[in-house]
Design brief:
The complex is a heterodimer of chains A (291) and B (314). With 291 residues, chain A is mostly helical. Chain A has 13 helices and no strands. Helix content of chain A is 77%, strand content 0%. Chain A is globular and about 75 Å long. Chain B has two domains: 1-54, no CATH class; 74-313, MetI-like (MetI-like fold), CATH 1.10.3720. A two-stranded antiparallel sheet of chain B has the order 1-2. The chains are: A mainly alpha (291), B mainly alpha (314).
Chain lengths: 291, 314
Amino acid sequence: MQMTMRQTRRLKLSLTYVLLALWAIFCLFPIYWLIITSVKLPIAVYQGPKYWPWIDFQPNLHAWEYVLAGPLKDQVTRSWINSAVLAISSAALAVGLGSLAGYALTRFQYLVPGLKWRNNDIAFWIISQRMLPPVVIILPYMIMYRLVGLIDTHVGMILAYTVFNLPFAVWIMRDFFAGLPVDLEESALIDGASRFQAFSKIVLPLAAPGLIATYLFCLMFAWNDYLFALMLTFSRASTMPMFVAGAGSQSYGPQWWLLSALSLLTVAPMILIALLVERYITRGLVVGAIK
Amino acid sequence: MQRVDAQPVISQRSVERGSGASLQDRSARLAFLLPAVILILVLSIFPLLFSLALAFMSWDLSRLTGGARFIGLGNFITLVNDARFWNTARVSLTFVVGAVLLEYVLGLGVAMLLNQEVRFRRFFRVAFLVPMMLTPAAVAYAGRMLFNEGMGPINDIIKHLGGPQIPWFSNANLALPSLMLLDAWEWTPFMMIVLLAGLQSLPPEVYEAARVDGASDWQLFRHVTFPMLAPVSITVILIRALEAFKLFDIVTVMTGGGPGTATEPVTLYAYLVGMKNGNLGYASAIAYSLLVMVIIFTTLFLNSVRRRAAAAAE
């Protein structure tokens, strides 16, 4: 009896590992496929699926040369740098404004006249902007940006991504600040610090994990965006997802080896973030969703 | 935006001490909140109203200055009689329901697997997180390669396992389910991570008590885990559903809405009408109808959840 129970438990555990391993393969295989396709010669792509480099096919760096040192070099560099500049600066702005507002919503009391909205209503109004499908507001954006000359500019895109990320940043930072004790800032205020000094010198350092998580999320949303870039840019401020999406529509059929290399260049920073700071991402996700 | 009471929540003391700090806080409270609120008003609420106004206008993209004309309900009359629009509404709804259900079931399954004493947890967590962080436009290309019927590995592997060759994206009936599969690859991780955190926050005493009473694994899941996880489940399902209504990048790059219009969601149709046909007014009417769909869906979903919760409580 004892033996069979142990056996069933062992069987269950092995089954768990098998299923987890299968799911890991399911999650990682597409990335593996991008990597090996990017080092295939066209013939190795069109001959039907080849799985193992050096065994099934001879790896070759022609696609990477074409993308990084060949005809696509300038466009790829510009798009990649654009993506980085837009994502890094818009995320910083969103986190900055988001933590100010998130802090205010946990430490001050508000009442919007006429609407009788209090802090929770304001917070909900802000997060409800996030539920809005961007396609509803994207045409007015395009018209406004064309009329005021923000179309295809870095400033315009940074503004758009900041507003897009702001509701989420406020929501998460509000939750982080609500969890911080107020004693320290109170004593600083009594010692004559201004509210902003107390906020920047005492509260922000304590909220560092929240700031990092929020920043990474905003970075990710901005980096991965396609719709805003598609509607609001065409060359100068065009981003990496735009370039990748456009690269597949040649009349002579998609060049899978190039698309794989370009896709990898696009997703590489995100994979790196997942590897380095998985903890922050997970924490931010959980806070953002459950609270 | 104005306040009634002058003192901040945290500090009754500052009031007692006199006006110095609270005067400062009066300006601080506005200075902290207003930048975000103003930005949202100008760049989110204004475009939203602008879009509503557009929906009642005829305005051509090629005549951006001075080409706007008020046409009342014209766009909405066109909309009601537009078979292609109704098809996109069906595609969007089917996609939301199908993809989110698939992601929930898979996400819950993986979360329960990982909510045990297993080794290599960190590896699994990182590996399981990766898909949701990747750029959808790039994911769509990976999808096009993997599902490719001639040179893709998926059909090849199925063939080696003795299964049939599946026309994933060339068959009009299969294209939408295939798209759900790709979406599930990218977004199951989100469900998994949040549900795992939900599972870990359940009190262990309940399990011990149920175990002592001799409950089987299935009974534990059915009568303890699943009901206790319900609030988290409802939240993740709602969040993912709201996101799934926004479906654009993956479908645009993956299928372009095809074959035919079999995978064309409302978002893509609004984009095509606005940017390719240049009909800004009609595109806004289509986009606004999506917003209405989202609101109706959310209300119905929350109502049915509430009704069930009430029924369960009786």
